[in-house]
Design goal:
The complex is a heterodimer of chains A (about 290) and B (about 180). Chain A is mainly beta and about 290 residues long. Helix content of chain A is about 10%, strand content about 30%. Chain A is globular, with a radius of gyration of 23 Å. The N and C termini of chain A lie far apart (about 60 Å). The chains are: A mainly beta (about 290), B alpha+beta (about 180).
Chain lengths: ~290, ~180
């Protein structure tokens, strides 16, 4: 349900608060490489590229118990008009954006709505902050218990006949006399939505709209991923530390503020081209710590 | 006396902080780098759509000082490239500061390119993996080009990875015998 959110006071620029939840971004996983930080420690990084991610709607839904659900709907990666349904073309026309391949929404607080049509940029994330990355994992097909659940299988010899990789027992005896629901068995593995938490943003490149995050991210190369502020380290910790009065611990070390309500292409023009996070370490990895 | 110096230090730090704050208001400690140079031959639009982005980053991410190594020592076709079987001395900023031995393998991954060097040190086989683009790697000196064993062994190694040398001490001494460090 589309509704115009309450217009903000134009004299007071929107500012991030520890109670705010900002929108995320839809990016594409381009690949992995390695980088060395300023102290000389090697960091494996995943390169995420923001491929024309624009706001297609601001969603406000009033539930039966009168609470409100607020969300920002984003579309990413342009698509040919001839491959887009008429219904979706109408939706994109309302937002004044071109047809997009993927449309997803991010739940936000009411103050974090972004004007429809805004193009988001990599500067939405601050180097040094933490993000969660959500994507569909690589499909592994029909897999047995050993790969899917980490079962140990049976011995390689000593009389074991044919069942070296089998599940073994699936339950008890006459009581209960059945297999419990949820019993781990062989089946389709992978190809499901996975969230990787607390990945540190290492570098932001505005010209190519690149986000370098430390660590690995689910999905194949060129897959669409959803990137948002880490729920555990950014959102929950900010709210908790603000409530406890530990104001210097509200945001991660080195991060002073977050672009609010979103880091846009306009904002990127006024910021440096490549921004890199300082090392999270204290001293060089090759020096002994006292 | 001390307060004067402290005030001067605070003043210089504040001016530095104010310039970074003006440039990037969301964090004071970030490192600001120059824009990645995109050559004229690659259109920006195709890179922004991801076409050829990773191959471009393979060449663009290593710092300028290391790019010379990537183009010569670690390239696939350059006449002066590092071949497996070459005897090298590697000088690093961390301990052990110099390490010599035979190059067993070269793993080409753009910025993550690395090579393994093996030597026998005090009757113990020691292998070290060095990352070419690490800021700690200062110098790679070639002592003996590949194929310097003498006699029938005096030709280039016929393998890309010489892991068989782990089980042949005779061949190791033939190639890297007497190389100290």
């Amino acid at each position: 349900m589309q509704a115009t959110p309450t217009p903000a006071d134009p004299l007071k620029a929107a500012k991030w608060t520890p109670q705010s939840i900002r929108t995320g971004v839809i990016a594409r996983k381009r690949g992995m490489t390695a980088m060395w930080d300023d102290l000389g420690a090697r960091q494996p990084v995943t390169v995420l590229q923001i491929d024309n991610c624009q706001v297609t709607a601001n969603i406000v839904t009033v539930r039966k118990d009168k609470t409100e659900y607020h969300a920002v709907q984003l579309g990413a990666t342009d698509k040919r008009e001839k491959n887009t349904t008429a219904q979706m073309m109408g939706h994109f026309r309302n937002a004044n954006v071109g047809p997009k391949q993927i449309v997803r929404e991010f739940p936000v607080t009411p103050d974090a709505h972004v004007p429809v049509g805004t193009t988001l940029s990599a500067v939405h994330f601050v180097p040094g902050q933490f993000v969660d990355v959500v994507a569909k994992s690589i499909g592994k097909g029909f897999q047995g218990g050993m790969k899917r659940w980490g079962f140990k299988g049976l011995r390689a010899s000593h009389g074991v006949s044919i069942s070296h990789r089998s599940l073994g027992s699936t339950g008890q005896h006459q009581d209960p006399g059945r297999v419990w629901p949820g019993r781990k068995m062989a089946g389709r593995m992978g190809g499901v939505r996975i969230t990787t938490h607390n990945l540190r943003v290492v570098r932001v490149d505005t010209a190519l709209n690149l986000l370098f995050v430390k660590g690995c991210v689910p999905g194949v190369d060129d897959a669409h991923v959803m990137v948002r502020d880490a729920k555990k380290i950014m959102v929950a910790q900010a709210q908790h530390n603000q409530a406890k009065g530990r104001y210097e611990k509200v945001l991660p070390k080195g991060v002073d503020d977050l672009p609010f309500p979103a880091g846009t292409q306009e904002m990127a023009k006024s910021l440096p081209p490549v921004i890199e996070a300082p090392s999270a370490r204290v001293i060089s990895p090759f020096l002994p710590r006292e | 006396m001390f307060t004067g110096r402290l005030r001067a230090l605070a003043r210089s730090m504040s001016t530095a902080a104010s310039t970074t704050a003006a440039a990037y208001p969301f964090s004071k400690n970030v490192i600001i780098r120059p824009a990645t140079a995109i050559p004229q031959s690659i259109p920006l639009e195709s890179l922004q759509k991801g076409k050829g982005l990773m191959p471009f980053l393979q060449t663009a991410l290593p710092p300028p000082e290391k790019r010379q190594w990537m183009e010569t020592l670690f390239s696939k076709r350059h006449p002066d490239r590092l071949l497996p079987g070459t005897v090298v001395t590697v000088i690093t900023a961390h301990a052990p500061n110099t390490f010599s031995g035979v190059v067993l393998s070269i793993r080409r991954r753009g910025p993550d390119t690395s090579f393994v060097v093996r030597n026998i040190v005090q009757r113990t086989g020691v292998e070290m993996q060095f990352f070419a683009n690490s800021p700690h790697l200062k110098e790679i000196k070639i002592l003996k080009k590949s194929g310097g064993g003498g006699g029938r062994a005096g030709r280039r190694a016929r393998r890309a990875k010489l892991f068989y040398l782990r089980h042949s001490p005779l061949k190791m001494t033939a190639i890297a015998g007497g190389v100290k460090g």
